[in-house]
Task: structure prediction
Amino acid sequence: MTGVKLLGPVEFEVGEAFADIVDRVDGRPVFRPYLAGEWGRGERVRDIKSPIDLSVIGAYYVPGWGDVDKALERLHGSGRWSARNVPGERRIRILERLADLIEERRDDIAQALVINAGKPIKSAYGEVDASIDRLRRASLDVRKLIGDYIPGDWDEHTLESEGLVRREPYGVVLAIIPFNYPFFDTVNKFTYSFLPGNAFAVKPPSADPIPVFYFIKLALEAGVPPDAIALLPIPGKEAGRLVADRRINVISLTGSTETGVEVLKQAGIKQFIMELGGGDPAIVLEDADIESAAQKIAAGITSYSGQRCDSIKLILAEKPIYGELKELIVEELKKVRIGDPRDPGVGMGPLIDPGTADEVIEAVKEALDAGAALLHGGRKLGPNYIEPTLVEVTDKETLMRLKLFRDEIFASIAAITPVRDVDEAIEIVNSRRYGLDAAIFGKDINKIRKLIRHLEVGAVYINEYPRHGIGYYPFGGRKDSGIGREGIGYSIDQVTALKTIVYNYKGKGIWEYM
Ligand code: NAP
Result:
């Protein structure tokens, strides 16, 4: 490995509280699936690696279809009723208890995120704390669990009748989790699924499933009915049968657009929440506070090594401030320390997949061959460590042809381009196939208003870089970036079915007109 100094060999210890969910094979932990009532095993195991040095730190059993089938039968048979029959007020208390248990096991979970996901320590604790916060905000979701009363008075056919429209859980939600927020994403999807009374199955990411195994153990300890939850660690490429299963009513997927398309093809008629790929543009107006914009943009490029759906991948700046902005961003990128995420001074750790580092190198080469300039980075510092990279592409047509514009490269790489005015910025942003978020830096309210109206994205952040956080503000994409919304109170709509109840009182002489 060149360039990155590791603190030492990677060692992973399963927290004491989680010892009973693993087998020990040749001294290494092998994590067990949870089959809606019992911890299982499997027909084969798959290695779990640490991205820090790509060493194997454990393994997990892949359950055979017989076991998956058993788990789905339990979830759909008794589990969905076990979840629904817990009164709402007690479901909230289970979520609160889960938050407390996560708090008690904060260090174990953060350690798993550092070692298995390669998160810098501060980000790892940030993810655990966001998960606790999300659970403790669950009571805010409850306000969306309301219905309608519809008097029949306004149509001659429905006179002397009345209707209620209420929400009820669909039954079984399957959560498919990406590698970049394995713990928070599981907690978030579980919170909005279980709160209205759904049973919950989770398919963890193959690269870093350990935090999801920890989650299940704590959820059971918190009092989630044992037959209302399952952990099915099946590799994505083999998950077609699971996704298509008719006992699953809702699929909540966070992942790449390509996976989203595949799941939609396989799943048949179900409800979907799809939080898909993106990478966000930042538009900087000539009257922006350029120093603050540069700092925030650099954070948006480098946070978790650019492995965030809301990472900044494109900067469009009005010409009068373009030169100064670009220099300031480069200065900020130079300050970022790349290295071992176990070192508290490190800001950017490894990429989960060495293949992505190669993608960055290829994208830079393609851009330079097309006449772009490399302003910073562009070098590999190890198989899966890469410098934050900024590429200048001054020609709009060239930019729009490049891979780094057309696709989402899931690493710390962004392009910067000068624009004539906001119309040109709108044209460029809307020509991307993604539409997750956009950031605008500046003061001119007329320009900002125009951008807000025309940008085809799910969220616009003004004088801030996009950060979904715990979903206090809802987020989700348009176009190739997804279907539906995640965020407190906003996902309830998609995991609950509307049911209309009509009461007929005709001829009973009891009707009071409205
Ligand atoms: P990914 O490769 O698409 O995988 C996501 C999950 O889908 C994993 O659990 C994966 O399993 C599974 N999967 C893959 N193919 C599948 C199939 N055919 N059927 C069922 N499941 C399948 O994405 P990732 O690399 O983990 O995560 C990064 C992506 O997520 C980026 O594109 C990012 O933008 C997006 N993301 C979006 C948001 C948002 O809010 N919009 C938030 C975070 C991340 P395996 O791991 O076993 O392959």
The chain has a mean pLDDT of 97.
